[in-house]
Specification:
Largest sheet of chain B: 2 strands, parallel
Largest interface: A-B, 85 and 73 residues
Helix content of chain A: 40-55%
Strand content of chain B: under 5%
Strand order of the largest sheet of chain B: 1-4
Low-confidence stretches of chain B: 1-18, 20-28
Shape of chain B: globular
Structural class of chain B: mainly alpha
Oligomer: heterodimer
Number of strands of chain A: 2
Number of helices of chain B: 6
Mean pLDDT of chain A: 86
Number of strands of chain B: 4
Helix content of chain B: 40-55%
Low-confidence stretches of chain A: 1-8, 14-46
Radius of gyration of chain B: 17 Å
Structural class of chain A: mainly alpha
Amino acid sequence: MNIFNILEEIEKADPDFHDRINPRRAAIKNITNFGSKIAVTALPFAMRTIFQKAYGQTLPQSVTNILNFALKLEFLESAFYTQGLAAKSLVPTGGDTTAITTMSTQEKAHVVFLQTTLGSSAILQTTQGTNGTYDFTAGGLFPTVFTNYDTFLAVANGFEDTGVRAYKGQVPGLIGNQTVLTAALSIHSVEARHAATIRQLRSLRPAGPATIKPWITGANDTGNANLFNNYVGEDNVIQDNITITSLNALNGTVAVNTATEAFDEPLTLAQVLSLVAPFGVK
Amino acid sequence: MERRAFFKYAGAGVAILGLAGSSCKKSADNNPAKKSTIDVGSGDTGILNYAYALEQLEAAFYTQVIATPYTGITAAETAILTDIRDHEIAHRAFYKAALGSGALAALVTDFSQINFADRTNVLDAAKGFEDLGVAAYNGVAYLIQDAVNLTIAGKIVSVEARHSAAIRNLSTTGTASPFSTFADATVIQPSTLNNVANPYNGLEAWRLPSQVLPTVNQYITVNLTATKLP
Protein backbone atom coordinates (compact mmCIF):
# COMPACT_ATOMS: atom_id res chain seq x y z
CA MET A 1 0.00 0.00 0.00
CA ASN A 2 2.90 2.37 0.57
CA ILE A 3 6.58 2.63 0.03
CA PHE A 4 7.41 0.63 3.15
CA ASN A 5 5.90 -2.38 1.45
CA ILE A 6 8.25 -1.84 -1.45
CA LEU A 7 11.22 -1.79 0.89
CA GLU A 8 10.01 -5.00 2.49
CA GLU A 9 9.69 -6.58 -0.92
CA ILE A 10 13.19 -5.50 -1.82
CA GLU A 11 14.48 -7.01 1.40
CA LYS A 12 12.87 -10.32 0.52
CA ALA A 13 14.80 -10.38 -2.74
CA ASP A 14 17.93 -8.78 -1.33
CA PRO A 15 18.41 -9.49 2.38
CA ASP A 16 21.44 -7.21 2.47
CA PHE A 17 19.49 -4.25 1.25
CA HIS A 18 19.37 -2.52 4.62
CA ASP A 19 23.07 -3.08 5.18
CA ARG A 20 23.69 -1.62 1.81
CA ILE A 21 21.75 1.52 2.52
CA ASN A 22 22.77 1.80 6.17
CA PRO A 23 25.36 4.57 5.77
CA ARG A 24 22.72 6.58 4.08
CA ARG A 25 19.89 5.66 6.37
CA ALA A 26 19.05 9.30 7.00
CA ALA A 27 18.54 9.86 3.32
CA ILE A 28 16.32 6.81 3.04
CA LYS A 29 14.31 7.96 6.03
CA ASN A 30 13.68 11.24 4.30
CA ILE A 31 12.47 9.44 1.25
CA THR A 32 10.13 7.23 3.19
CA ASN A 33 8.69 10.20 5.02
CA PHE A 34 8.26 11.85 1.68
CA GLY A 35 6.71 8.71 0.26
CA SER A 36 4.02 8.60 2.89
CA LYS A 37 2.83 12.03 1.88
CA ILE A 38 2.98 11.94 -1.86
CA ALA A 39 0.57 10.64 -4.42
CA VAL A 40 1.06 7.10 -5.60
CA THR A 41 1.85 8.34 -9.09
CA ALA A 42 5.00 10.01 -7.81
CA LEU A 43 6.42 6.79 -6.41
CA PRO A 44 8.53 5.89 -9.42
CA PHE A 45 10.59 8.98 -8.70
CA ALA A 46 11.09 7.90 -5.13
CA MET A 47 12.04 4.47 -6.40
CA ARG A 48 14.65 5.96 -8.64
CA THR A 49 16.13 7.88 -5.72
CA ILE A 50 16.27 4.73 -3.62
CA PHE A 51 17.93 2.88 -6.46
CA GLN A 52 20.58 5.54 -6.71
CA LYS A 53 21.15 5.82 -2.97
CA ALA A 54 21.38 2.09 -2.51
CA TYR A 55 23.52 1.25 -5.47
CA GLY A 56 25.36 4.51 -5.94
CA GLN A 57 24.27 4.54 -9.54
CA THR A 58 24.77 7.51 -11.73
CA LEU A 59 24.15 7.23 -15.41
CA PRO A 60 27.20 7.78 -17.59
CA GLN A 61 26.77 10.22 -20.47
CA SER A 62 26.84 7.44 -23.06
CA VAL A 63 23.92 5.73 -21.33
CA THR A 64 22.03 9.01 -20.98
CA ASN A 65 22.45 9.57 -24.71
CA ILE A 66 21.07 6.13 -25.51
CA LEU A 67 18.09 6.59 -23.21
CA ASN A 68 17.31 10.02 -24.64
CA PHE A 69 17.47 8.56 -28.13
CA ALA A 70 14.97 5.92 -27.03
CA LEU A 71 12.83 8.60 -25.42
CA LYS A 72 12.64 10.53 -28.71
CA LEU A 73 11.31 7.43 -30.45
CA GLU A 74 8.81 6.72 -27.68
CA PHE A 75 7.60 10.34 -27.78
CA LEU A 76 7.04 9.92 -31.52
CA GLU A 77 5.18 6.61 -31.25
CA SER A 78 3.12 7.76 -28.30
CA ALA A 79 1.99 10.93 -30.10
CA PHE A 80 1.29 8.93 -33.25
CA TYR A 81 -1.08 6.49 -31.57
CA THR A 82 -2.74 9.20 -29.48
CA GLN A 83 -3.47 11.20 -32.61
CA GLY A 84 -4.58 8.12 -34.55
CA LEU A 85 -7.04 7.07 -31.86
CA ALA A 86 -8.41 10.63 -31.72
CA ALA A 87 -8.90 10.86 -35.49
CA LYS A 88 -12.54 10.45 -36.40
CA SER A 89 -13.49 7.15 -38.08
CA LEU A 90 -9.88 6.09 -38.55
CA VAL A 91 -9.28 3.02 -36.39
CA PRO A 92 -12.09 0.45 -36.79
CA THR A 93 -13.85 -0.71 -33.67
CA GLY A 94 -13.16 -4.23 -32.35
CA GLY A 95 -9.76 -5.89 -32.54
CA ASP A 96 -8.11 -2.96 -34.29
CA THR A 97 -9.10 -0.49 -31.58
CA THR A 98 -8.12 -2.99 -28.88
CA ALA A 99 -4.68 -3.45 -30.40
CA ILE A 100 -3.95 0.21 -31.13
CA THR A 101 -5.14 1.24 -27.66
CA THR A 102 -2.82 -1.31 -26.03
CA MET A 103 0.09 0.00 -28.05
CA SER A 104 -0.75 3.59 -27.24
CA THR A 105 -0.90 2.82 -23.52
CA GLN A 106 2.40 0.95 -23.57
CA GLU A 107 4.25 3.61 -25.56
CA LYS A 108 3.08 6.13 -22.98
CA ALA A 109 4.37 3.86 -20.23
CA HIS A 110 7.74 3.64 -21.98
CA VAL A 111 7.90 7.43 -22.12
CA VAL A 112 7.26 7.63 -18.39
CA PHE A 113 9.80 4.90 -17.63
CA LEU A 114 12.52 6.62 -19.64
CA GLN A 115 11.72 10.04 -18.24
CA THR A 116 11.84 8.62 -14.72
CA THR A 117 15.12 6.85 -15.30
CA LEU A 118 16.69 9.92 -16.89
CA GLY A 119 15.33 12.36 -14.32
CA SER A 120 16.54 15.87 -15.02
CA SER A 121 18.63 14.61 -17.95
CA ALA A 122 15.51 13.72 -19.95
CA ILE A 123 14.92 15.75 -23.08
CA LEU A 124 11.61 17.59 -23.27
CA GLN A 125 8.93 16.54 -25.73
CA THR A 126 8.61 20.17 -26.79
CA THR A 127 12.10 19.99 -28.30
CA GLN A 128 10.68 17.61 -30.91
CA GLY A 129 8.86 18.54 -34.12
CA THR A 130 7.56 22.09 -34.13
CA ASN A 131 7.16 22.91 -30.44
CA GLY A 132 6.29 19.28 -29.79
CA THR A 133 3.99 18.78 -32.81
CA TYR A 134 5.07 16.20 -35.38
CA ASP A 135 4.43 16.04 -39.10
CA PHE A 136 3.15 12.48 -39.46
CA THR A 137 2.80 12.93 -43.22
CA ALA A 138 6.64 13.08 -43.21
CA GLY A 139 6.64 16.09 -45.47
CA GLY A 140 3.89 14.68 -47.67
CA LEU A 141 5.11 11.08 -48.04
CA PHE A 142 2.06 9.81 -46.16
CA PRO A 143 -0.60 12.47 -46.81
CA THR A 144 -3.51 10.26 -45.69
CA VAL A 145 -1.91 8.99 -42.48
CA PHE A 146 -4.86 10.04 -40.29
CA THR A 147 -7.63 9.71 -42.88
CA ASN A 148 -6.86 6.32 -44.41
CA TYR A 149 -6.45 3.40 -42.00
CA ASP A 150 -4.24 1.42 -44.36
CA THR A 151 -1.81 4.34 -44.55
CA PHE A 152 -1.93 4.68 -40.77
CA LEU A 153 -1.05 0.98 -40.39
CA ALA A 154 1.76 1.26 -42.93
CA VAL A 155 3.32 4.12 -40.96
CA ALA A 156 2.80 2.17 -37.71
CA ASN A 157 4.47 -0.83 -39.33
CA GLY A 158 7.48 1.34 -40.16
CA PHE A 159 7.63 2.90 -36.70
CA GLU A 160 7.41 -0.38 -34.79
CA ASP A 161 9.90 -2.33 -36.88
CA THR A 162 12.26 0.64 -36.84
CA GLY A 163 11.84 0.92 -33.08
CA VAL A 164 12.87 -2.71 -32.71
CA ARG A 165 15.90 -2.09 -34.91
CA ALA A 166 16.79 1.08 -33.01
CA TYR A 167 16.83 -0.54 -29.55
CA LYS A 168 18.74 -3.50 -30.95
CA GLY A 169 21.38 -1.17 -32.35
CA GLN A 170 22.02 0.33 -28.92
CA VAL A 171 22.38 -2.99 -27.12
CA PRO A 172 26.18 -3.26 -27.48
CA GLY A 173 26.54 0.18 -25.88
CA LEU A 174 24.84 -1.16 -22.76
CA ILE A 175 26.85 -4.38 -22.46
CA GLY A 176 27.14 -5.60 -18.87
CA ASN A 177 24.80 -2.93 -17.52
CA GLN A 178 22.23 -5.06 -15.76
CA THR A 179 19.79 -2.29 -14.97
CA VAL A 180 19.70 -0.37 -18.21
CA LEU A 181 20.38 -3.21 -20.66
CA THR A 182 17.67 -5.37 -19.13
CA ALA A 183 15.22 -2.48 -19.20
CA ALA A 184 16.07 -1.60 -22.81
CA LEU A 185 15.62 -5.20 -23.93
CA SER A 186 12.38 -5.43 -22.00
CA ILE A 187 11.06 -2.47 -23.98
CA HIS A 188 12.56 -3.85 -27.21
CA SER A 189 10.57 -7.09 -27.01
CA VAL A 190 7.35 -5.16 -26.38
CA GLU A 191 8.00 -3.17 -29.55
CA ALA A 192 8.49 -6.47 -31.37
CA ARG A 193 5.11 -7.69 -30.11
CA HIS A 194 3.57 -4.46 -31.40
CA ALA A 195 5.32 -4.82 -34.77
CA ALA A 196 4.08 -8.39 -35.24
CA THR A 197 0.55 -7.36 -34.35
CA ILE A 198 0.49 -4.35 -36.70
CA ARG A 199 1.65 -6.72 -39.44
CA GLN A 200 -1.16 -9.16 -38.63
CA LEU A 201 -3.71 -6.33 -38.66
CA ARG A 202 -2.40 -5.33 -42.09
CA SER A 203 -2.61 -8.90 -43.39
CA LEU A 204 -6.33 -8.91 -42.58
CA ARG A 205 -7.04 -5.71 -44.54
CA PRO A 206 -8.56 -6.13 -48.02
CA ALA A 207 -6.19 -3.43 -49.28
CA GLY A 208 -3.26 -4.64 -47.21
CA PRO A 209 -0.11 -6.23 -48.58
CA ALA A 210 -1.11 -9.80 -49.45
CA THR A 211 2.03 -11.55 -48.30
CA ILE A 212 2.95 -9.65 -45.14
CA LYS A 213 3.79 -11.81 -42.12
CA PRO A 214 4.32 -11.02 -38.42
CA TRP A 215 8.09 -11.22 -39.10
CA ILE A 216 10.24 -9.40 -41.62
CA THR A 217 10.82 -11.38 -44.81
CA GLY A 218 13.81 -10.20 -46.81
CA ALA A 219 14.24 -6.44 -46.86
CA ASN A 220 11.24 -4.09 -47.32
CA ASP A 221 8.23 -6.43 -47.26
CA THR A 222 5.71 -3.77 -46.24
CA GLY A 223 4.34 -3.08 -49.71
CA ASN A 224 5.17 0.60 -49.26
CA ALA A 225 8.15 1.93 -51.21
CA ASN A 226 8.43 4.94 -48.89
CA LEU A 227 9.59 2.57 -46.14
CA PHE A 228 12.44 1.14 -48.22
CA ASN A 229 15.24 2.58 -46.07
CA ASN A 230 13.62 1.35 -42.84
CA TYR A 231 14.43 -2.21 -43.92
CA VAL A 232 17.92 -1.82 -45.30
CA GLY A 233 19.99 -4.81 -44.18
CA GLU A 234 17.05 -6.91 -42.99
CA ASP A 235 17.85 -9.37 -45.79
CA ASN A 236 21.13 -10.35 -44.09
CA VAL A 237 21.69 -14.12 -43.91
CA ILE A 238 25.12 -14.16 -42.21
CA GLN A 239 25.26 -14.16 -38.41
CA ASP A 240 28.56 -14.16 -36.54
CA ASN A 241 30.33 -15.32 -39.74
CA ILE A 242 27.94 -18.25 -40.07
CA THR A 243 25.93 -18.37 -43.28
CA ILE A 244 22.49 -19.39 -42.05
CA THR A 245 21.40 -20.62 -45.48
CA SER A 246 24.21 -23.18 -45.42
CA LEU A 247 22.91 -24.78 -42.20
CA ASN A 248 20.81 -27.93 -42.23
CA ALA A 249 17.04 -27.67 -41.88
CA LEU A 250 14.35 -30.35 -41.97
CA ASN A 251 14.62 -30.76 -45.71
CA GLY A 252 17.88 -29.50 -47.16
CA THR A 253 19.32 -26.23 -45.91
CA VAL A 254 17.66 -23.22 -44.30
CA ALA A 255 15.67 -21.25 -46.89
CA VAL A 256 16.64 -17.65 -47.61
CA ASN A 257 13.30 -16.28 -46.39
CA THR A 258 13.59 -18.27 -43.17
CA ALA A 259 17.13 -17.05 -42.61
CA THR A 260 16.06 -13.42 -42.93
CA GLU A 261 12.89 -13.83 -40.85
CA ALA A 262 14.63 -15.67 -38.00
CA PHE A 263 16.99 -12.79 -37.18
CA ASP A 264 15.93 -9.15 -36.82
CA GLU A 265 18.69 -6.71 -37.71
CA PRO A 266 19.87 -3.57 -35.89
CA LEU A 267 20.16 0.00 -37.17
CA THR A 268 22.62 2.60 -35.95
CA LEU A 269 21.51 5.72 -34.10
CA ALA A 270 22.38 7.85 -37.14
CA GLN A 271 20.40 5.60 -39.48
CA VAL A 272 17.34 5.74 -37.25
CA LEU A 273 17.50 9.50 -36.76
CA SER A 274 17.63 10.05 -40.51
CA LEU A 275 14.56 7.81 -40.91
CA VAL A 276 12.47 9.69 -38.36
CA ALA A 277 13.75 13.20 -39.09
CA PRO A 278 11.01 13.80 -41.74
CA PHE A 279 8.45 13.35 -38.93
CA GLY A 280 10.17 15.99 -36.83
CA VAL A 281 12.38 13.93 -34.52
CA LYS A 282 15.44 16.01 -33.69
CA MET B 1 24.13 -10.40 -2.22
CA GLU B 2 24.44 -9.00 -5.66
CA ARG B 3 22.58 -6.40 -7.57
CA ARG B 4 20.66 -8.98 -9.55
CA ALA B 5 18.69 -9.83 -6.44
CA PHE B 6 16.87 -6.59 -6.88
CA PHE B 7 15.84 -7.74 -10.29
CA LYS B 8 14.15 -10.79 -8.89
CA TYR B 9 11.94 -8.36 -7.14
CA ALA B 10 11.62 -6.06 -10.11
CA GLY B 11 10.38 -8.82 -12.37
CA ALA B 12 8.39 -10.55 -9.70
CA GLY B 13 5.09 -8.85 -10.32
CA VAL B 14 4.39 -10.64 -13.55
CA ALA B 15 3.01 -14.12 -13.27
CA ILE B 16 4.07 -15.65 -16.54
CA LEU B 17 3.59 -18.80 -18.37
CA GLY B 18 0.70 -21.02 -18.99
CA LEU B 19 3.32 -23.72 -18.97
CA ALA B 20 3.75 -23.56 -15.24
CA GLY B 21 0.13 -24.59 -14.84
CA SER B 22 0.72 -27.90 -16.55
CA SER B 23 3.50 -28.97 -14.22
CA CYS B 24 1.20 -31.13 -12.15
CA LYS B 25 1.18 -33.80 -14.84
CA LYS B 26 4.83 -34.68 -14.64
CA SER B 27 5.42 -38.14 -16.02
CA ALA B 28 7.32 -40.68 -13.99
CA ASP B 29 10.39 -40.83 -16.22
CA ASN B 30 10.58 -37.06 -15.93
CA ASN B 31 11.22 -37.15 -12.21
CA PRO B 32 14.23 -34.88 -11.54
CA ALA B 33 15.57 -37.35 -9.00
CA LYS B 34 15.89 -40.07 -11.62
CA LYS B 35 17.33 -37.93 -14.39
CA SER B 36 20.97 -37.39 -15.21
CA THR B 37 22.22 -33.83 -14.88
CA ILE B 38 23.89 -31.70 -17.53
CA ASP B 39 25.23 -28.24 -16.80
CA VAL B 40 25.23 -25.54 -19.47
CA GLY B 41 28.65 -24.28 -18.34
CA SER B 42 29.98 -20.83 -17.56
CA GLY B 43 30.51 -17.50 -19.29
CA ASP B 44 29.28 -16.78 -22.78
CA THR B 45 29.56 -20.45 -23.73
CA GLY B 46 27.24 -21.33 -20.88
CA ILE B 47 24.76 -18.67 -21.94
CA LEU B 48 24.88 -19.77 -25.57
CA ASN B 49 24.31 -23.36 -24.49
CA TYR B 50 21.40 -22.21 -22.36
CA ALA B 51 19.94 -20.47 -25.44
CA TYR B 52 20.72 -23.55 -27.52
CA ALA B 53 18.72 -25.68 -25.09
CA LEU B 54 15.74 -23.33 -25.33
CA GLU B 55 15.89 -23.34 -29.11
CA GLN B 56 16.17 -27.13 -29.19
CA LEU B 57 13.06 -27.35 -27.08
CA GLU B 58 11.11 -24.94 -29.28
CA ALA B 59 12.28 -26.49 -32.55
CA ALA B 60 11.28 -29.98 -31.39
CA PHE B 61 7.91 -28.72 -30.19
CA TYR B 62 6.94 -27.05 -33.47
CA THR B 63 8.27 -29.97 -35.50
CA GLN B 64 5.77 -32.12 -33.62
CA VAL B 65 3.00 -29.53 -34.04
CA ILE B 66 3.40 -29.58 -37.83
CA ALA B 67 3.93 -33.35 -38.01
CA THR B 68 0.68 -34.02 -36.12
CA PRO B 69 -1.55 -30.97 -36.68
CA TYR B 70 -4.33 -30.37 -34.20
CA THR B 71 -7.97 -30.88 -35.11
CA GLY B 72 -9.39 -28.03 -37.14
CA ILE B 73 -6.11 -26.32 -37.93
CA THR B 74 -6.63 -23.57 -40.52
CA ALA B 75 -4.40 -22.74 -43.48
CA ALA B 76 -3.42 -19.46 -41.80
CA GLU B 77 -2.48 -21.27 -38.59
CA THR B 78 -0.45 -23.86 -40.49
CA ALA B 79 1.42 -21.09 -42.32
CA ILE B 80 2.28 -19.24 -39.10
CA LEU B 81 3.26 -22.36 -37.15
CA THR B 82 5.35 -23.71 -40.04
CA ASP B 83 7.25 -20.44 -40.30
CA ILE B 84 7.89 -20.49 -36.55
CA ARG B 85 9.10 -24.10 -36.74
CA ASP B 86 11.54 -23.13 -39.46
CA HIS B 87 12.80 -20.11 -37.51
CA GLU B 88 13.41 -22.21 -34.41
CA ILE B 89 15.23 -24.85 -36.45
CA ALA B 90 17.42 -22.09 -37.90
CA HIS B 91 18.14 -20.77 -34.38
CA ARG B 92 19.00 -24.27 -33.18
CA ALA B 93 21.31 -24.86 -36.14
CA PHE B 94 22.94 -21.47 -35.61
CA TYR B 95 23.79 -22.15 -31.95
CA LYS B 96 25.07 -25.61 -32.74
CA ALA B 97 27.38 -24.16 -35.39
CA ALA B 98 28.44 -21.20 -33.23
CA LEU B 99 29.23 -23.40 -30.22
CA GLY B 100 31.10 -26.02 -32.23
CA SER B 101 32.79 -28.53 -29.96
CA GLY B 102 31.51 -26.64 -26.90
CA ALA B 103 27.87 -27.37 -27.75
CA LEU B 104 25.58 -29.31 -25.45
CA ALA B 105 24.48 -32.70 -26.66
CA ALA B 106 21.21 -32.89 -28.53
CA LEU B 107 18.43 -32.92 -25.94
CA VAL B 108 15.70 -35.54 -25.99
CA THR B 109 12.33 -33.91 -25.48
CA ASP B 110 9.29 -35.24 -23.68
CA PHE B 111 6.05 -33.54 -24.62
CA SER B 112 3.78 -36.12 -23.01
CA GLN B 113 2.09 -33.30 -21.08
CA ILE B 114 0.84 -31.73 -24.29
CA ASN B 115 -2.15 -32.97 -26.27
CA PHE B 116 -1.09 -32.24 -29.84
CA ALA B 117 -4.59 -32.98 -31.16
CA ASP B 118 -6.10 -30.10 -29.20
CA ARG B 119 -5.83 -26.56 -30.59
CA THR B 120 -6.09 -24.76 -27.26
CA ASN B 121 -3.54 -27.02 -25.64
CA VAL B 122 -1.05 -26.57 -28.47
CA LEU B 123 -1.44 -22.81 -28.75
CA ASP B 124 -1.19 -22.40 -24.98
CA ALA B 125 2.00 -24.44 -24.93
CA ALA B 126 3.40 -22.47 -27.88
CA LYS B 127 2.61 -19.21 -26.10
CA GLY B 128 4.28 -20.51 -22.96
CA PHE B 129 7.46 -21.55 -24.77
CA GLU B 130 7.72 -18.24 -26.61
CA ASP B 131 7.09 -16.13 -23.51
CA LEU B 132 9.62 -18.21 -21.61
CA GLY B 133 12.16 -17.68 -24.38
CA VAL B 134 11.70 -13.93 -24.45
CA ALA B 135 11.93 -13.62 -20.67
CA ALA B 136 15.00 -15.87 -20.67
CA TYR B 137 16.86 -13.82 -23.28
CA ASN B 138 15.88 -10.55 -21.63
CA GLY B 139 17.00 -11.84 -18.24
CA VAL B 140 20.35 -13.32 -19.20
CA ALA B 141 21.55 -10.67 -21.65
CA TYR B 142 23.39 -8.57 -19.06
CA LEU B 143 25.74 -11.47 -18.35
CA ILE B 144 26.90 -11.78 -21.97
CA GLN B 145 30.45 -10.50 -22.28
CA ASP B 146 30.98 -10.51 -26.04
CA ALA B 147 29.27 -7.78 -28.07
CA VAL B 148 28.65 -10.07 -31.06
CA ASN B 149 26.97 -12.67 -28.86
CA LEU B 150 24.89 -9.94 -27.24
CA THR B 151 23.76 -8.55 -30.59
CA ILE B 152 22.80 -12.02 -31.83
CA ALA B 153 20.74 -12.54 -28.69
CA GLY B 154 19.03 -9.24 -29.47
CA LYS B 155 18.39 -10.32 -33.05
CA ILE B 156 16.73 -13.53 -31.88
CA VAL B 157 14.75 -12.30 -28.90
CA SER B 158 12.66 -9.89 -30.95
CA VAL B 159 11.77 -12.73 -33.32
CA GLU B 160 10.66 -14.82 -30.33
CA ALA B 161 8.53 -11.88 -29.20
CA ARG B 162 7.01 -11.70 -32.68
CA HIS B 163 6.21 -15.41 -32.41
CA SER B 164 4.50 -14.94 -29.08
CA ALA B 165 2.40 -12.06 -30.37
CA ALA B 166 1.46 -13.98 -33.52
CA ILE B 167 0.38 -17.03 -31.52
CA ARG B 168 -1.54 -14.94 -29.04
CA ASN B 169 -3.32 -13.20 -31.92
CA LEU B 170 -4.16 -16.59 -33.45
CA SER B 171 -5.56 -17.68 -30.10
CA THR B 172 -7.94 -14.73 -29.92
CA THR B 173 -9.03 -14.87 -33.58
CA GLY B 174 -12.76 -15.47 -33.76
CA THR B 175 -13.29 -14.79 -30.05
CA ALA B 176 -15.21 -11.90 -28.54
CA SER B 177 -11.89 -10.15 -27.79
CA PRO B 178 -9.58 -10.38 -30.80
CA PHE B 179 -6.09 -8.88 -30.47
CA SER B 180 -6.48 -8.52 -26.71
CA THR B 181 -3.54 -10.59 -25.45
CA PHE B 182 -0.43 -9.92 -27.60
CA ALA B 183 1.08 -7.77 -24.87
CA ASP B 184 -1.16 -8.37 -21.87
CA ALA B 185 -0.41 -8.42 -18.17
CA THR B 186 0.77 -12.04 -18.24
CA VAL B 187 3.95 -10.86 -19.96
CA ILE B 188 4.08 -7.08 -19.69
CA GLN B 189 4.47 -5.42 -16.32
CA PRO B 190 1.28 -3.76 -15.09
CA SER B 191 0.86 -0.15 -14.02
CA THR B 192 0.52 -1.09 -10.36
CA LEU B 193 2.03 -3.81 -8.20
CA ASN B 194 0.68 -4.53 -4.74
CA ASN B 195 -1.40 -1.38 -5.04
CA VAL B 196 1.53 0.92 -5.71
CA ALA B 197 2.62 2.38 -9.01
CA ASN B 198 4.99 -0.01 -10.75
CA PRO B 199 8.10 1.79 -12.00
CA TYR B 200 8.55 -0.93 -14.64
CA ASN B 201 5.09 -0.39 -16.12
CA GLY B 202 5.05 -1.34 -19.81
CA LEU B 203 8.25 -3.41 -19.74
CA GLU B 204 8.30 -7.11 -20.58
CA ALA B 205 9.10 -9.68 -17.91
CA TRP B 206 12.62 -11.06 -17.59
CA ARG B 207 13.79 -14.27 -15.98
CA LEU B 208 17.11 -15.66 -14.75
CA PRO B 209 18.25 -19.16 -15.79
CA SER B 210 17.42 -20.48 -12.32
CA GLN B 211 13.85 -19.32 -12.88
CA VAL B 212 13.61 -20.68 -16.42
CA LEU B 213 15.24 -24.11 -16.22
CA PRO B 214 12.65 -25.74 -13.93
CA THR B 215 10.12 -25.25 -16.72
CA VAL B 216 12.53 -26.40 -19.43
CA ASN B 217 13.30 -29.53 -17.41
CA GLN B 218 9.66 -30.57 -17.51
CA TYR B 219 10.03 -31.17 -21.23
CA ILE B 220 13.43 -32.83 -21.56
CA THR B 221 14.75 -36.19 -20.39
CA VAL B 222 17.79 -34.79 -18.59
CA ASN B 223 18.01 -32.34 -15.72
CA LEU B 224 19.61 -29.21 -17.16
CA THR B 225 21.36 -26.93 -14.68
CA ALA B 226 23.15 -23.60 -14.86
CA THR B 227 25.20 -23.68 -11.68
CA LYS B 228 27.65 -21.05 -12.94
CA LEU B 229 24.85 -18.65 -13.86
CA PRO B 230 22.33 -16.88 -11.59
